[in-house]
Hints:
Strand content: 15-25%
Order of helices and strands: EEEHEHHEHEEHEH
CATH class: Alpha Beta
Number of domains: 1
CATH topology: Rossmann fold
Strand order of the largest sheet: 1-2-4-3-5-6-7-8
Amino acid sequence: MMMEDGLLIDGAREDAQTIVLAHGAGAPMDSPFMNTIAEGLARNWIRVVRFEFRYMKARREGGRRGAPDREPVLIEAWREVIARLGGGARLVIGGKSLGGRIASMVADDAGARGVVCLGYPFHPPGQPARSRVKHLETLRTPALIVQGTRDMFGQPEEVKDYKLSRQIRIEWIEDGDHSLKPRARSRRTEADNLAAAIAAVSGFVKELAG
Length: 210
């Protein structure tokens, strides 16, 4: 892992397949979840670049917990990072929850190679009528959503009724919550589920590379 002008990079080979990941709403780019995913992908010869939205940088620097930036600011942050890394054609973009959702909103215009969403927030918990899927109905960029079957932001019985683009595939992680963590009684471990997620994302990125 290395830091370069605000970007956190794992697997720094420039010629490797590159995935750019943004964090979720509440935790930074170097949270345990993000570290585990990045390190696992790097072991599979994928270069992982992480960045933080403006509000998360402010939390880190000032220690004060502010609300996430408004959607246009988040979108612009993604566009800036994509441009900084040479454009979308060579990049798979995505992230945890909020980070992945915003990536899916810019992917088509940016010409991204693919999109990966780790725990997509299909709707706020307990509010399935407030769906966040309109743009996913017409998404042209190949996309992988890795979702826990217990995710309160979207479970199988809810998601099956959405009219999602045929470019989207969903990898369901057994008994996982929004961070893919299972219950102890499931006889699965968090490490099991994160390994399954890493395997799914690695396969998707390499498939896109041909």
